[in-house]
Structures are given as C-alpha cells and as structure tokens.
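tool=predict chain=A
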Amino acid sequence: MPSLQHAGLVAHYTETGNGDPVVLLHAGASSARQWRKISPQLESRFRLLAPDLIGFGDTPPWGGSRDLTQDDQAALVRELMRTADARPAHLVGHSYGGATAVRVALAAPGVVRSLVLIEPIMMPLLHQAGERVLFDEYRTFAERFIAEVDAGRDEAAMRFFIDHRNGAGTWATTSTESRAKLVAVARQTADAFTSNLNNPTTLADCVSIAAPTLIVCGAETTEPERIVTRILQDAIPDAGYAVVKRAGHMSPLTHPDGVARLILAHLACR
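tool=predict ok
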C-alpha cells in the first residue's frame, strides 16, 4: 500500500487503474477499502486514488494539540493530489469524505475537475438554512456518541452509531470481526463527529463552488442527511441530483453498482 508523509504522520492510500485521476474519500468509521466494490467498475477508465483519512484504516490518528478538523483532512487530500498526480482530479466523497471533498474544492478550486458528493455530512448547513430542529437532532446524536466514547463505552457508542445509520438491530447482525474493527476506531469516529459539528462551510461558500457537481442521496436515508443534500442542490450552481433507490446512507457499500453507474455517468461528461 503506497504512502506519503504528511503533518508528521505516514498516510496510506490505494492506487489502481489508468486514466484521469479520481480521488475517492471514504465515510467516517471506514477506510479506503470502502470502495472495493466500486473500484473495479471505474479503474478501466480512471486512475483511482483512495486515501485512508487521518485516523482511519492504516493512517494513524491525529496527533495535534487541537481538535481534528475537516480542513486537516482536506490538506491531506490536497497533498495526495499534488504528489500522486499533478493533473486536476475528480473528487468522489461519501459522508465524512464528502464534507472533506467540499473543503478541498473551496481551498483549491483549480485542482478539482468535478465533484460527486454522496450524502456529505455538513450538518451546520441545516442550522444556516433554518432547519434548526433537524440540526439539533443531529447534534444530540453526535454528542451522545462522543459522550459514550469519552466515558470509555466504545462498543455502546458504535452500536448506537450503526443502528442509527442503518436501522435498529443492524449491530446485532454484524459479524464479530466487523464489530471489533468498528470498536477499534470509536475514538477516531468521535473526533470526526467533533469536526462535523464544527464544519465551517457556509451557504455562501457552497454558492461559490464552480466545479461540476453531482449530489447523490439514498432514497431511505435519514431526514437530516436528505435535507442537507437538497440544501446543497439549491446552493451549488447547476448541481445535478440523483437518488439511489432502496438505499440508506451507506449506498456505496449496499448498492455499489448503482452508485458506480452514477459516478461514471457524471465523469463521462467532464
């Protein structure tokens, strides 16, 4: 697995395929391996770069004296883009990775050829758009998760997280191996929640995004995630919008074929 030095740590990423660069940014509590069902459908036409974001997969946790931010993750992505392929890249980001992709596009618009945002976690936009009840719902969810981890109840935190994201009872049907992997990144996931709550992106920022953008939403996702995608559709100029039927928030994992088709269709025109 290739790696690069960044911010005092060794960040790992995967690299497959040939062609114009596409950077794939995973969700929280996940890693570059999230894209293993989608990559084979893209790599015949594109060079795929998928980093393990800070604190996930094989990339070590954040070691700074302050809280981890979305901009710290975006800086890692920009460094990967600079060192691995100097050409402007397509960015595909899911959930936490989607919010990171937006921060990259705002900080360095010249390096972003297009965006695919799959339910990006940008919850402060709810508050800015007047959806304060939904924002408070998300904040309560995030703060409960963080409190469970701070109290040393990592497994309870991850059970709460997985059942909330994928439906009650999902944790009970998750394999022992997968549970162990999720519990192992509980602290990093709590740090990601903190950065989600403090995401500085504004509606005015979104209006300034010039990269061709496709926003993807699961038909059965939770209400806060769905409303955020609609807010982004209204704010980003000429943003496209697509719904993945029968999918929840984790559509790249549960409906990889449908998500891959949407990505390919968007990139083919760019």
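The radius of gyration is 17 Å. The mean pLDDT is 96.
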